[in-house]
Amino acid sequence: MAENQLETHSFGEPILTVCLDPAFGKKAEKRFVAGAARGHLYLTKKTWFNSKDAAIHEGGEGPVTAIVWLNSLIAWSNDRGVKVIDIETEEKITFIERPGYSLHCQLFWETDTSLIVSWAQTVQIVDFFSTPESVLESSSAEIGRRCAQIVSSWEIEPEWEIFGLSPFDRESFVLLALEQKPGEQVNGSPMPEIQIRHRLSGDILFTPDALPLRNFEGQNGGYSLQTTCMLASKRSQHFNWHHVDWIVPESQKLRSTSVMKGDPPIMYVIAESDVVVVRVRDLDDHVQIFLQDS
Q: Rounded to two decimals, what is the model's pTM?
């Protein structure tokens, strides 16, 4: 990188998370949001001639631990819960209170109108909508105002803790979870695992093979989960893949190539010393495993 392409921004306090404008590479005005340890949320705008930093949320509610940005909506989490604002109109959309004493908040915009929120024990699906004109006793100022509603909420078993969450298909989520026995510290904990759970009930549908993580016993819970669903959600409102959809055309049954309806997501488990790529097994994988075991 050339020296004149490098920029430094100083906010006077530790920055814990940063999120770029989704249109960062398309617009002349470059914007990003930074979440600070003292709870401030900063919006930085840079044009050809100047750069401006502004605090769009004051501190006092604990550190900003997660930020997601879709279109004009920004959602972030702190010790009190999750807040959502419209960055263009400066409208405060909603506040979602933190459920109990929870940590490790994960945020994911699944569609333009659906936000997934997960804490250590709780998963919530939040839908956004505009107040219709047909609502009785609504003033003209309230018509068209955006609102939010928790349409689904469930908790996992108390011995498990969520460290990452992502959509898996139309009916399920994939969780990166760690078993925590009563009184046990995170340091020296067992290996985390991938769990496929029903998105409305939270029931476990499937638990894949153990993750091949090295030195997991000494990790301090620094796990995260990334997924290609972040790209798929922007192309289509609904996922075109289902975990029970398998198609093997008659013309290809004698070939080694299998055909799956849609594109399953690829997950990346990030730990302190490893990055593990998690893929859905296709028919070729099952045949290969069968041959190895036979």
A: 0.79
